[in-house]
Structure formats: C-alpha cells, structure tokens
C-alpha cells in the first residue's frame, strides 16, 4: 500500500469522525432539556381557561395551549415561552400570572407549548425556524375564533422571541410584536458560548453547522431574527431585555433596535435571562401594558 493511499485513508477516517461528532453534537444540542416544574395555571388567578389543541402551519404538528377567552374582547395576544420551558413553567412558573394580568387588561390570551415542549408534539427545537409555524398555528386558531387580522399580538421570550419575530415577518395578521430576551443572530450567540455549551473545541463548530444543514434542511448560520424584524414595521414592536442577561447579551437587544429604529426598547436591571417579569413585575407591566394600550391600534 502506497504512502499516498495511507494518507488518503487516514484523512477519510478523520473526516468521518469529524462529521460524526458534528452530527451527534447537532442532535444533542437541539434536544429539549429538563425544566423545573411549577403548578400554577390561570385558574389560580381567577381566570377561566380552556385546554386547546391546534395544528402548526405547514407541518401540522399537534400544538397544545391554554386559551383564556375574554367576552367582548376584540384583541388577543399569544404568549410564547423560551427553550426548555412551557406555558406553565416559563418565567419560573409565572407565565400564567402574566397571562392573567393581560387578560385583566382586556385581552383574550392564548398560551402555547412550542414543539417538543410541554404537551406539544415534537422532540427538538430549531432556534425559531420551525417554531414560527407553531405561532402561526396559534394565529390560525385565533382567526378561527373570531379575531381579525391585525388584532392579534404575539409576545415571545428568548427562543419564543425568535419564533414570534419569524411569524410576524411572514404574516401581517400579527398586529403587534413583543420580543423579550431574544437573540439577534444565532452565530453571535453560539460562538462565544460554544465550548461551555458543547464541551468541544471551537474547530468542531463548522462541522456542526454543516451537519445541521444536512440533517435539518437549513443553514443554522442564516438564523438571524434581526434580519426578519425589519419586515414587521409599521406594526408596533417592543423589545425587552436586561443589562444583566448572561445568556443573551444585551447587545442583541441593541442590534434589534438598530435594525428597527421605530421599535420601543426597554432595558431592565437586576434580572436573569428570560425572567424579567419574575424579577421586575411592576416595571415589566409598566412597559408592556401602555405599549399594548397606546401603540397597538384597537
């Protein structure tokens, strides 16, 4: 066997091992993880609600939700949790309380479990690319229940923020958008956290991106909510973030704001990632309720 053949075989073995590691990492890093479990639901706060199910758009996955009808309401809002959470467990179990506050402000509310989370179908998350279909399925549910296009808002937290941005960019039935603790560009989020999240050297990251494209059908490096957000105005946009967010740096919020200068940006202090309402409930409602009342035409 010639030296060239040996070199070729060694190279191919290294390449196969490299791609295998990339494939395993791609699947592992997109698996929905465990989350602390909480017990509150909207009923705890005196609001009647219904457990509902509806299909996501395009791929027709079964999406679970809690619907808080509001007799006489002409507007509704969709609440979307972040990664490894659910309609019951997001914001350290306080998403139902936030839903009750919004219901008290005159809105019908639809809380959903993104695919792979809570009671919805699916096993993996896709950084908002396919989750937007779940949000659009929620839009369809509300349209079928009598709400008009433009009279539906969407509030998404972290991963949910990427999902609602993508959904609003695709469908103008979403008349107002609130993105909390949301990344602007997935590469700038993953790159500095790669070794801590994956335990792998940086040289494996390109292989993960390539295998992700092969296995999932899209290039992860193109996941840039900041580029989709520009398609949302003139519909009103509210961006909420924390100076102290150690998961998604506040610079992501500024990037979103710079892309859409007309958006309203509110920065919180002393808050953990995706926990703004838990950590600063009065300030959160002070930012959110007037935005809904004054910036979103009724």
Summarize the structure in words:
This protein is of the alpha/beta class and 298 residues long. The protein has a single domain, classed as Alpha/Beta hydrolase fold, catalytic domain (Rossmann fold), CATH 3.40.50.1820. It is 41% helix and 16% strand. The chain contains twelve helices and eight strands. Strands 1-2-4-3-5-6-7-8 form an eight-stranded mixed β-sheet, sandwiched between helices. Helix 10 links the parallel strand 7 and strand 8.
SSE order and pairing:
Layout: H1 3-29, E1 50-55, E2 62-68, E3 76-80, H2 90-93, H3 95-104, E4 108-112, H4 131-144, E5 152-157, H5 159-170, E6 174-180, H6 186-190, H7 194-198, H8 205-216, H9 225-229, E7 237-242, H10 251-259, E8 264-268, H11 276-279, H12 281-295
Parallel strand pairs: 3-4, 3-5, 5-6, 6-7, 7-8
Antiparallel strand pairs: 1-2, 2-4
Short synopsis of the structure:
The chain has 298 residues and is α/β, with parallel strands linked by helices. It has helices spanning 3-29, 90-93, 95-104, 131-144, 159-170, 186-190, 194-198, 205-216, 225-229, 251-259, 276-279, 281-295, and strands spanning 50-55, 62-68, 76-80, 108-112, 152-157, 174-180, 237-242, 264-268.
């Amino acid at each position: 066997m010639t030296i060239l053949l040996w070199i070729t075989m060694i190279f191919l073995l290294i390449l196969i091992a490299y791609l295998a590691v990339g494939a395993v990492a791609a699947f592992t890093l997109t698996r929905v993880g465990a989350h602390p479990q909480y017990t509150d639901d909207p009923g705890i706060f005196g609001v009647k609600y219904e457990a509902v199910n509806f299909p996501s758009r395009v791929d027709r996955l079964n999406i679970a939700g809690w619907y808080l009808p509001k007799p006489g309401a002409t507007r509704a809002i969709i609440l979307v949790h972040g990664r490894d959470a659910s309609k019951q467990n997001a914001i350290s179990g306080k998403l139902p309380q936030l839903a009750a506050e919004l219901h008290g402000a005159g809105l019908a509310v639809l809380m959903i479990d993104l695919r792979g989370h809570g009671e919805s179908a699916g096993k993996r998350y896709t950084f908002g690319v396919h989750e937007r279909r779940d949000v659009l399925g929620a839009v369809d549910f509300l349209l079928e229940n009598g709400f008009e296009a433009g009279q539906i808002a969407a509030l998404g937290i972290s991963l949910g923020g990427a999902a609602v941005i993508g959904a609003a960019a695709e469908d103008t039935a979403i008349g107002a958008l609130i993105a909390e603790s949301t990344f602007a560009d997935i590469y700038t989020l993953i790159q500095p956290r790669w070794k801590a999240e994956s335990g792998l050297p940086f040289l494996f990251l390109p292989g993960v991106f390539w295998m992700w494209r092969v296995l999932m059908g899209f290039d992860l490096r193109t996941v840039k909510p900041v580029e989709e957000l520009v398609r949302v105005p003139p519909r009103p946009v509210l961006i909420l973030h924390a100076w102290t967010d150690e998961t998604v740096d506040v610079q992501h919020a500024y990037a979103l704001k710079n892309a859409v200068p007309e958006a309203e940006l509110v920065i919180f202090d002393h808050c953990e990632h995706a926990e703004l309402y838990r950590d600063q409930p009065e300030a959160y409602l002070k930012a959110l309720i007037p935005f809904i009342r004054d910036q979103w035409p009724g």
